[in-house]
Specification:
- The chain is of the alpha/beta class.
- It is built from eleven helices and seven strands.
- Strands 4-3-5-6-7 form a five-stranded mixed β-sheet, sandwiched between helices. It has a two-stranded antiparallel sheet with strand order 1-2.
- The longest helix has 23 residues, at 2-24.
Length: 265
């Protein structure tokens, strides 16, 4: 009788272990624990420091990582969502010394946040479960330059789909001009480029209740940053400004209120 009880207990123990293993392992691989937002920001800063110093480690780029990508959900691994400009001088994974399944990247001219980009960001934050969003501007941005020239009346003809693509940048340029009245001509472009980062964050918060809630619940941090194409260095903008923009949007009656899509989507 004692032997039978012992056997039953042993079987139960084995079943419990197998069940626990099934919870911890997806597709035969242990799910990675996501770092918290502050840890992710430090990882991005460290990666950029390696890139700038010429000591990049080129992590997660080997055959084993590719095999893992073929079996794992990216949501188990990606630690940051980054929206950046499409400019070829801004290779996102390289400048943060990251690899496959590390960064969920959204790229568009002028790093603007409009419908397609905001939907992609929502996917990165809510489904890929990245703890950080970086809105990454860069020096010598052609989109900001084009909008600035257009406002100054010195622009040139553009293909029909470009103006509606970059119209989100116009408020940023106008704000930069008002804030820096002593800046003339192209002198305003660096100021406008930074304002365009803040404009992107505001546009995101205005259109995405889901993103606002993730930030308010401290599950996600939204950071603005500027990449210098001539040095490779990323400069981080104050996190307090993001929270200031969030408070402004929360008081705006025009902000979107329904986080989820309707109509059975």
């Amino acid at each position: 009788m004692k032997e039978r009880v012992s056997l039953m207990l042993a079987v139960c123990w084995v079943v419990a272990v197998v069940f626990a293993a099934g919870v911890c392992f997806a597709g035969g691989h242990e799910a990675a624990q996501k770092p918290d937002p502050d840890q992710v920001i430090e990882m991005l800063k460290a990666g950029n420091a390696r890139f700038v110093s010429g000591k990049a480690a080129y992590p997660n780029q080997d055959a084993a990582r590719l095999r893992l990508a073929g079996t794992e959900n990216q949501g188990n691994h990606a630690y940051a969502t980054v929206i950046s400009c499409s400019d070829s001088r801004v290779p996102v994974e390289l400048i943060f010394d990251a690899g496959v399944m590390d960064i969920f990247v959204v790229r568009v001219a002028g790093n603007v946040c409009d419908v397609d980009e905001i939907g992609s960001i929502e996917y990165g934050l809510a489904h890929v479960n990245t703890p950080v969003l970086v809105v990454l501007g860069h020096t010598q941005c052609g989109a900001v330059t084009a909008v600035t020239h257009a406002i100054h009346g010195t622009g040139h003809a553009l293909e029909r789909n470009i103006p509606p693509l970059v119209d989100n940048i116009k408020p940023a340029v106008e704000r930069a001009m008002a804030m820096h009245p002593d800046a003339h001509g192209d002198e305003v472009i660096p100021f406008a480029t930074e304002e365009n980062i803040w404009q992107g964050i505001e546009d995101l918060f205005m259109a995405s209740p889901a993103s606002r809630e993730l930030v308010k619940s401290a599950k996600v941090k939204v950071m603005g940053a500027m990449y210098d194409v001539s040095t490779g260095k990323v400069s981080w903008l104050p996190a307090s400004k993001t929270l200031e923009i969030l408070r402004k949007v929360e008081a705006d009656p025009k902000r979107a209120m329904d986080a989820m899509a309707g109509g059975g989507h």
